[in-house]
Amino acid sequence: MEQKFKEIASRYCKGDVGEITPEMAIREDLGLSSLDLMTFLGDLEDEFDIEFDFGADEQKLGNIRTVGDAIGLLNEYVG
Amino acid sequence: MKKTIHTLWNRSAKDYADLPAVRWLVKKDIKEISYKQADEVISGLRKGAYALGFEHRHIALVGTNSAEWIEAYMSVVTSTNTAVPLDSALPAHDLIDLIDRSDSEGVFLDPKFASLATEIKDKCKKVKKIWMLSDEAIEGTESLKDLIAAGEGADEPSAPEEDDISMIVFTSGTTGKSKGVMLTQSNLYTNIEAILYDMDPGLIFLSVLPVHHCFCLVMDWLNGFWMGAVLCINDSLMHMVRNMTIFNPDVMLMVPLMVETIYKRLRTLDPSIPPEVVSEKVFGKNLKYIFTGGAHLEPYYIEEFNKYGIDVYEGYGMSECSPVISSNKIGDSKPGSIGRPLPNVEIKFVDGEILVRSTSVMKGYYKMEKETEETLKDGWLHTGDKGYIDEDGFLFINGRVKNLIILSNGENISPEEIENRLALNDLIGEIVVTGEDNLLTARIFPDPDMTGGMSDEEIRNALQEILNDYNKQQPTYKQLSKLVVRKYPFLKNTTRKIIRAEVYRDEQGA
Prior knowledge:
heterodimer, A: mainly alpha, Non-ribosomal Peptide Synthetase Peptidyl Carrier Protein, Chain A, 4 helices, B: alpha/beta, Rossmann fold, 3 domains, nine-stranded mixed beta sheet, five-stranded antiparallel beta sheet, 15 helices, 31% helix, globular, ACP-like_sf (chain A), Acyl carrier protein (chain A), PP-bd_ACP (chain A), AMP-bd_C_sf (chain B), AMP-binding_CS (chain B)
């Protein structure tokens, strides 16, 4: 799943998928804009066939800063 | 014929009666209403409000883009009432403040923000009615059905005059208070009239901008309705790209940030795939025209999108001008410029600043006479932008007179507004907010009296805490992403004002 996640993330950033680490900040390190991050979350929904709950998980979604944060949240939905 | 939105809508409802007016998604199904069906709802809502005594009253709208939001909005702007579209992403106390300050007596409320209803009732004393943008009401509110029922069998209210205020849109203010831009019926009508392009009815628009924005309301919705277009609602920015392949639009209005995001998508696709295949996969089958505004677009993107058969036209405007001032047009454009001034716009330059006189210039800021006098002098709107017109008559922007930060999503951030709020904190001695790479940075000189005995790390952590608290209450675009802690105060001029232009230069070692 992590690999698929990174492939989707790489649609929005330059560089090699292999270089993405969980510690990286999505906006500052990967260079995603706020809109990139939104559409990236939309891609995750489509690719993993899930639907983020913006009511209940608003805080969690709003607090995504690093690649690890996003993978963690994704695990909750996919798992 | 009166140049009003009432005239515009009635003409379209009659001429395009059986054509689809609005499309939207419910889960994966596409729903649709025709111009005739939309008109029935709009007329019903308008009569209902009139029967309840709403005539020349202000009615606020809180919600995201939906068919109900648009129907409610159209019911207000086709009457003598004034629509006050608000940014639903704002913190609750700001929304309450704006509902109150705009003297709104009715509120249309998206069910997603139902929790606001009680607070509005308690704190906005002028509000007499709250209508949920839904067929179901919650306690203390009424539904759209209830509103339509209130006007059942009643006559149509009298039509608005050209000079009636059709809407008040709020825009960033430098003193910490956002300003309500008053736009008349004819301000809006003549702005659309000046920008119309020759296309057959049935053209498909996908509306992706926030619906409370003047650019979206006037250039997607009112302009689209004028042309008999099919307006498709993008349910979420998360699915903007996917929705392009679902609705297959011909035309889209964007802010540069959206163009940049789509470009990143294009760039990562396999270069061996033919452009027409890529284009269909990313933009849908029909996209031909993208109009951008709200912030400057690098001409590079125009060239890149051209390779996929898509023309990108940059324009320029501000809410105070309903909003378009100049625009590149189909068959008449120059990349890098913001197009020629519209036919109803006169431009002059004073000390490099662009001044505008037009039938689309606002009446003023609502209950802010001083701010109105500063911006509108002798009928000329002071844009705060510096620019010039080249030998071919195209307008260019090359700087700003005021301190607004324009992000590439088109949001205008007033640094003073954020600074004034944060400066209330004792730990902050001096603060300047700047924008780089679409992120806001707080540059802070901590108050030496308050930081005695604290290590650099403790100071940084304490300041970061303050920013975190602030960020929690703000929409994403107003959040402060970076913190620079300064060791020395900012350079100041003789009147002890911080010299903004010197903020970066004197930062080394600061």
